[in-house]
Amino acid sequence: MMNIRKTAVLASLIVLCVAMAAGQPTVLRVDINQIKGKVNPAMWGLFFEDINMGADGGLYAELIKNRSFEFFRPLMGWNVLGKAQEGALLVLNRQEQQAANPRFLRVNTERSGAEGMGLSNEGFRGMGIKEGLRYDFSVMYRQRKPGITLKLELVDSAGRVIGQGRWQPRGDGQGWQKQSASFQATATHPRARLNIWFEGAGEIDLDMISLFPADTWKGRPGGLRADMVQLLADMQPGFLRFPGGCIVEGFDLSQRFQWKKTVGPIEDRQQLINRWNFEFRHRPTPDYFQTFGLGFFEYFQLAEDIGAEPLPILNCGMACQFNSAEVVPMDRLDEYVQDALDLIAFANGDISSPWGKLRAEMGHPEPFNLKMLGVGNENWGPQYIERLAVFQKAINEQYPEIAIVASSGTDPSGERFDYLNSELRKMQVDIIDEHYYRHPDWFFENASRYDDYDRNGPKIFAGEYAAQSVRIASPDNKNNWLTALAEAAFLTGVERNADVVTLASYAPLFGHIDGWQWTPDLIWVDNLQAYGTPNYYVQKLYATNKGTHIVPVTAGGKPLTGHQGLYASAVVDGNAGEVIVKVVNRNGDSETVVLDVPGIRRMPATATCIVLQSDNLDRMNTIDQPLAVSPKTETVEINGKRPQFELKPYSFTVIKIKR
Question: Which of 87, 205, 360, 537 is deepest in the core (most CB within 10 A)?
Answer without folding.
Answer: 537
